[in-house]
Design brief:
The chain has 327 residues and is mainly α. The protein is 54% helix and 7% strand. The chain has two domains: 203 residues, HUPs (Rossmann fold); 89 residues, Tyrosyl-Transfer RNA Synthetase (Orthogonal Bundle), CATH 1.10.240.10. It has 13 helices and five strands. It has a three-stranded parallel sheet with strand order 1-2-3. The two termini are 33 Å apart. It binds adenosine-5'-tetraphosphate (AQP).
Length: 327
């Protein structure tokens, strides 16, 4: 039997290369090996203010990017989180087994609360909902970027706490790291991760960017002092980030890149990287534009939600029974 994989992306903005390299491309690479469930986690998106119309558009857009990047909905379950209320149901129960202290230590919460005027309980509590997303489906592996690793650890702790109290209910999930590019950084601030909510649009390469936009963002991407193309996270974070993107999209090793670019300098490297990104994204963008207006996406998501519910219903019943809230 294939092992179960669960992952998701928030429809909180346009998908960028960090989401693609850290998550989506990994899902596609491993798609045939696992029994996959891929979610569009809209309930996580509303932990910060969202425009309702834009949120709906982005939800559909993310589903289209999943398919355009290579997720096959006949092979993998694909659905929108809010279409399966079992997530919020289990989320509430897990709240009651999650410590306030542990939630307060989540670095993503600490970062995000600085960026938003109104800090909601949802923003604080979202790792408990994420734990529910994962635990509902007996997930074994969670392929996400490194920024989410702490949330997987919290999920494991909560599951172990409940299993310890009530017997084996939940499968303990494991973090599945990306093959390359656990954390893609901003092109403008290499000490900050590339993010949908980044305020400087030049720091982020979106999957929808045109070739000219990509070339320009690369041209003005910050670099480090010196001129060598070498990986050195501490002293050369900007060029290290660009090398990571190059590696992830081209499959080339650091040694190959070193041989290819030795003595050539940043300008040529950045120009070539721009072309690598453009070539990689071009077929995905073409496929995206072919499907984004199709009604088939809604149908795919409805079917996906039904299949997801079939699996999660059993888990909810099991949890209700053991904690004593079933009739
Ligand atoms: N910079 C990144 N490098 C590698 N992986 C990344 N991911 C996000 N940014 C990077 C991975 O993308 C998946 C989906 O993330 P998400 O949308 O659910 O949440 P996020 O991590 O908070 O993403 P953003 O882009 O930073 O969104 P905002 O700004 O709205 O919060 C996850 O697997 C994540 O690890």
């Amino acid at each position: 039997m294939k092992k179960r994989v669960f992952s998701g992306i928030k429809p909180s903005g346009d998908l960028h290369l960090g989401n693609y390299i850290g998550a989506l491309s990994q899902w596609v690479a491993h798609q045939h090996e696992y029994d996959n469930i891929f979610c569009i986690v809209d309930l996580h998106a509303i932990t910060v203010p969202q425009n309702p119309h834009r949120l709906q558009e982005q939800t559909k857009s993310i589903a289209a990017w999943y398919i355009a990047a290579g997720i096959n909905p006949d092979e993998s379950i694909m659905f929108v989180q809010s279409d399966n209320p079992d997530h919020t149901y289990l989320g509430w129960i897990l709240n009651c087994f999650t410590g306030i202290g542990q939630l307060g230590r989540m670095t993503q919460y600490k970062d995000k609360k600085e960026k938003t005027e109104f800090v909601s309980v949802g923003l604080f509590d979202y790792p408990a909902l994420m734990a529910a997303d994962i635990l509902l489906y007996d997930t074994q592996f969670v392929p996400v970027g490194e920024d989410q690793k702490q949330h997987i650890e919290l999920t494991r702790d909560v599951a172990e706490r409940i299993n310890g109290q009530y017997g084996h209910i939940f499968t303990i999930p494991e973090y599945m790291p990306p093959i390359a590019g656990e954390r893609i950084m901003s092109l403008q601030q290499p000490d900050k991760k590339m993010s949908k909510s980044e305020s400087d649009p030049n720091g982020t390469i979106n999957l929808s960017d045109t070739p000219d936009q990509i070339r320009e963002k690369l041209r003005i991407a910050v670099t480090d002092s010196g001129n060598e193309i070498i990986i050195d996270k501490k002293n050369k974070p900007a060029i290290t980030n660009l090398i990571t993107i190059y590696q992830a999209l081209s499959g080339k090793t650091p040694q190959q890149l070193d041989a290819e670019y030795s003595g050539k300098g940043y300008k040529i490297f950045k120009q070539d990287l721009g072309e690598v990104i453009i070539q990689h994204l071009s077929p995905i963008q073409t496929r995206y534009s072919e499907i984004i207006h199709s009604k088939a996406i809604e149908k795919t998501l409805t079917n996906g939600a039904n299949k997801a519910k079939e699996i999660s219903t059993t888990k909810i019943q099991q949890v209700r029974n053991v904690i004593g809230i079933s009739q």
